[in-house]
C-alpha cells in the first residue's frame, strides 16, 4: 500500500523568507504525486502535480516541487513566502485507484 | 474551467438522523470518489464508484454509508444514522479515467461539505 509522510506538522517562516515543505512517499511503482493547499474552512486546491518527465515541476502561486526518486521525496518550495500563503499543505500520492494524503504541514507566516 | 461542485457547503444534523451529501462531478468524468477529513486530521479515502457500483472502499465506509448516482449528473453520499464522530469535511472528487494515462486519471476535488453532528 502507498503512504505519504510529512515530517513537519507545523512550520513558521517570516514573510519574504524561502520555504521548503518536506514530503516522503512509499509506493511500489512510478508515483503520481501532488501538493494541495487548504486554507482554513476551505476545500483542497491543487498546487502542482508530478506524473513524469522533468523532475522539477512548477505550480500555481509561485510554488515548485522537485521529485527525487533516489530519496523518495517530493519537497515543495517557494523562494519568497507571502502572508497569504499561510495555510495547511498536503502532499498526496495517487495509486491503487485512490489518493492517499499525508498528515499535512501547517504553515504560519509572520510579518 | 469545469469543476466539481458540492451542496450544501455546511450541514448540521442531529445524531441518529440520515443525511445526504450531494456532488456534481465534472460532466465527462466516469469515476467518482468520496473522502473525508475530520477536523485537524488528514484527508482519508472513503469510497470509489464506477459504472453504478462501488469499485473500492475503505474500512471507514461501513454499512451506515452508501453512495448512489441517482441521475446523470449527481453523485450522493448517504449516512443512514449519523454519529458524533461522523462530523467532518466531506470531499467529493471525480476523474475521467481510473488508470493510465495518468493525466486523465487525475482526481478533481470539490470544495467540500462540512457536516456537523450534534
Please write out the topology.
The complex is a heterodimer of chains A (111) and B (118).
Chain A: E1 3-5, E2 10-14, E3 19-21, E4 24-26, E5 32-38, E6 45-50, E7 56-58, E8 64-68, E9 73-78, E10 87-95, E11 98-101, E12 105-110
Parallel strand pairs in A: 2-12
Antiparallel strand pairs in A: 1-4, 3-9, 5-6, 5-10, 7-8, 8-9, 10-11, 10-12
Chain B: E1 5-7, E2 10-13, E3 19-24, E4 31-37, E5 43-50, E6 53-57, E7 65-68, E8 75-79, E9 88-95, E10 108-109, E11 113-117
Parallel strand pairs in B: 2-11
Antiparallel strand pairs in B: 1-3, 3-8, 4-5, 4-9, 5-6, 7-8, 9-10, 9-11
Describe what you observe in this structure.
- The complex is a heterodimer of chains A (about 110) and B (about 120).
- Chain A is mainly β and about 110 residues long.
- Chain A contains no helices and 12 strands.
- Chain A has strands at about 5, 10-15, 20, 25, 30-40, 45-50, 55-60, 65-70, 75-80, 85-95, 100, 105-110.
- Chain A is globular.
- Chain B is mainly β.
- Chain B has one domain (about 5-10, about 15-95): Immunoglobulins (Immunoglobulin-like, Sandwich), CATH 2.60.40.
- Helix content of chain B is about 0%, strand content about 50%.
- Chain B is built from no helices and 11 strands.
- In chain B, strands 2, 4, 5, 6, 9, 10 and 11 form a 7-stranded mixed sheet that branches.
- The chains are: A mainly beta (about 110), B mainly beta (about 120).
- The interface of A and B includes residues 42, 44, 52 and 99 of A.
